[in-house]
Design goal:
Structural class: mainly alpha
Number of strands: 2
Strand order of the largest sheet: 1-2
Strand content: 5-15%
Shape: flat
Order of helices and strands: HEEHHHHHHH
Largest sheet: 2 strands, antiparallel
Radius of gyration: 20 Å
Length: 228
């Protein structure tokens, strides 16, 4: 049994692909011709543009990447050997797909917006947008974690979670609050970026890597029987 696409699900994906197509069309017809030949393509932890490239490089990384990501997100439930599991949390997966696609589109427009002077090349706005959106995404994932059913591509995919449904259930129940904390820490790092970029990097590394490591350790100890 594979993932089922009802009328509502088909409409959701059609609308999402239409949004990405509109983004691609606007980027190609409006943003790309108006941009100078050299544009900012990378921003440091403090929000200052510190990398530039030709505007042609933005076509793949900016304009086309949301489309490629969306195609992958659409294909995942159909390619996953446990694709039927997505039927039981399709609302969560669709919400994540929409949020991540919008995140990619917003990120893509940072370059032309900065090139046009709408976003300053230095300041807090870029980091606020990126860290803020990513933090909210992590918080949303944390809330959804306990409801994700076993599959091979979405969730905490470890050998022992994939082999044991009970380990999967308890690991994801544990991971929920951890991801919420990771998201809140990411949101807080946006406020620290301009004033203390070094501290921001430490906060991000501790929160993200530490959170992932904690979830993995919990799942492993659960598999070993250390945690009952």
């Amino acid at each position: 049994m594979r993932v089922e696409l009802g009328r509502g699900e088909r409409a959701f994906w059609i609308v999402l692909f239409a949004v990405v197509a509109a983004h691609l069309l606007a980027y190609a017809l409006l943003a790309y011709p108006a941009m100078p030949q050299t544009v900012p393509t990378h921003w440091g932890v403090d929000g200052t543009a510190d990398g530039w490239d030709s505007k042609g490089s933005t076509i793949l990384m900016g304009a086309l990447m949301p489309l490629l990501i969306l195609v992958l997100l659409f294909a995942v439930p159909h390619l996953d050997p446990r694709g039927a599991s997505f039927n039981r949390f399709k609302g969560i997966y669709q919400g994540f797909s929409a949020a991540f696609t919008v995140f990619m589109i917003v990120t893509a427009w940072l370059t032309p917006a900065t090139a046009f002077g709408l976003i300053p090349e230095s300041g807090l706005l870029v980091n606020t947008l990126i860290f803020g959106f990513f933090g909210l995404l992590l918080v949303g994932l944390g809330v959804a974690m306990p409801h994700i059913e076993p599959n091979y591509t979405f969730g905490v995919r470890l050998p022992w979670t994939l082999a044991d449904p009970e380990n999967w259930r308890r690991t994801h129940r544990f991971a929920g609050p951890v991801f919420v904390v990771m998201g809140v820490a990411t949101l807080a790092s946006a406020l620290l970026a301009s004033a203390a970029p070094e501290l921001t990097l430490v906060v991000l590394l501790v929160a993200l890597l530490g959170g992932v490591a904690l979830v993995g350790l919990y799942s492993f100890l659960l598999w070993k029987g250390v945690i009952r």
